[in-house]
Specification:
Order of helices and strands: EHEHEEHEEEEEHHEEH
Number of strands: 11
Mean pLDDT: 86
Largest sheet: 9 strands, mixed
CATH topology of the largest domain: Rossmann fold
Radius of gyration: 20 Å
Number of domains: 2
Strand order of the largest sheet: 2-1-3-4-9-8-7-5-6
CATH class of the largest domain: Alpha Beta
CATH architecture of the largest domain: 3-Layer(aba) Sandwich
CATH superfamily of the largest domain: Class I glutamine amidotransferase (GATase) domain
Number of helices: 6
């Protein structure tokens, strides 16, 4: 198991896996879990930070995906993205409303607080990608506006409670400096050490499988989908990892 990670809670976004990929590109391990993952499961990944993904729902929908509010009490940094911002506002006592003007596509965001860690080293005006129908109207107690578009709130934070959120999508290539924002969160805010590599993941997974299997037997498959019996961990475990079956 990894000794540190950024956990992405998936609220139904098409980009959740891309968020995790962008974090891994910063040499920090990231895993995607469902929005309703238990605190125990989240803790099992030794998170140094949590990202709340976007999603197509409104927080006021009858069947809206709502995470356990206790994620905000774990004492680790949280970054909300799009719906993740709206959920953060809603869960912590703010107000969300249908936007007077839905934003979809390219937008310009103006940074309002030059001392925000999330935007450290970035220019005052950012090109970003927006996709939202709701917006934050009233911020929760202790939050401040850190960026805006001409039409809506673009970013908020409560650094004292280790909470940040953006209405736009930093993970897509239409936000050219999005990787810098995610790096600021993962490395500068969360304090993650940028030492992770894909090989490290393979080594850690092999060790975990060996611990689970012990002297027993398990069924796995190689990259050619050929069934194999895990009689020799040294021979067959790599196949299990490469195939994505584990």
């Amino acid at each position: 198991m990894e000794t540190q990670s950024i956990v992405v809670l998936d609220f139904g976004a098409q980009y959740s896996q891309l968020i995790a990929r962008r974090i891994r590109e910063q040499k920090v391990f990231s895993v995607v879990l469902p929005f309703n993952a238990s605190l125990e499961e989240i803790r099992s990944y030794s998170p140094v930070g949590i990202i709340l993904s976007g999603g197509p729902s409104s927080v006021y929908d009858k069947d809206a995906p709502l995470a356990d509010k206790s994620v905000f009490d774990l004492g680790i940094p949280v970054l909300g993205i799009c719906y993740g911002l709206q959920f953060m506002v809603y869960a912590l006592g703010g107000k969300v409303r249908p936007a007077a003007k839905r934003e979809y596509g390219h937008a310009k965001v103006e940074i309002q607080q030059s001392d925000s860690q999330l935007f450290q080293g970035l220019p005052k005006l950012l090109a970003v990608w927006m996709s939202h129908g709701d917006e934050a109207e009233d911020l929760p107690p202790g939050f401040r506006l850190t960026a805006k578009t001409p039409n809506a709130v673009a970013a908020i934070e409560n650094a004292k409670r280790k909470m940040w959120a953006v209405q736009f999508h930093p993970e897509v290539h239409h936000t050219p400096l999005g990787s810098d924002i995610l790096r600021n969160f993962a490395v500068n805010i969360c304090g993650a050490k940028p030492t992770w590599t894909p090989q490290h993941f393979i080594d850690a997974t092999v060790a975990q499988i060996r611990q689970q299997v012990g002297s027993g037997r398990a069924i796995c498959a190689d990259i050619f989908d050929r069934p194999a019996t895990l009689e020799s961990p040294d021979r067959d475990i790599p196949d299990l990892v490469q195939s994505g079956l584990y």
